[in-house]
Amino acid sequence: MSQTDLAFADLLAKTRHSAVHLEMRDSYGIGEEAAEFEAWRSGWRPSPDPEAWWNEFHTMVREAAERGVVFRRARIVSEPVSDYIKYEHGCTYQNIAAGEVVRWLPRRKASDLTLPGNDFWLFDGEIIMWNHFTGDGGSVGPELDERPAVAKLCATAFDSVWDRATPHEDYRV
């Protein structure tokens, strides 16, 4: 398990009621996902059978959801969407199967929102796990932040995006 995965697992184990995730990039290049994306670009598609793709992340989310943690993920995307976003959209059924609710917001509808400079997870409205990336989308590791004013900024930003965003089942790429 990577450092990011270990940090996420630790935070999630302590989460009582909510975990929200805001994604704002049009492409990512993270580990195994980068290879899977390249395969997708060549025509491969993931199996609908959970046994083919279920992993530790999905198990952590499912277990937390079963104990009452509500997961919401919002993605701000440029349109027309990138190939990566098409891939991500096509795999989102996996997040939903684990217990997340996902929405999509076209970037042009976010112009007047105050947003933090980085993707993040916010646990119970109190603890932020910033996700930092290189220019080509590789992860450079998480950073934890427990400043109450910054957590409030993230919660407000996420809720603003969530209120405008389109539910996954209605968003077309």
Automatic annotation (TrEMBL):
Alphabetical list of InterPro entries matching this protein: DUF6879 (IPR049244)
Please report the stretch or stretches of sequence annotated as the DUF6879 domain: 8-172
This protein's superkingdom? Answer: Bacteria
This protein is called DUF6879 family protein
Protein species of origin = Streptomyces nondiastaticus
Instruction: Give the taxonomic lineage as stored in the record.
Output: Bacteria, Bacillati, Actinomycetota, Actinomycetes, Kitasatosporales
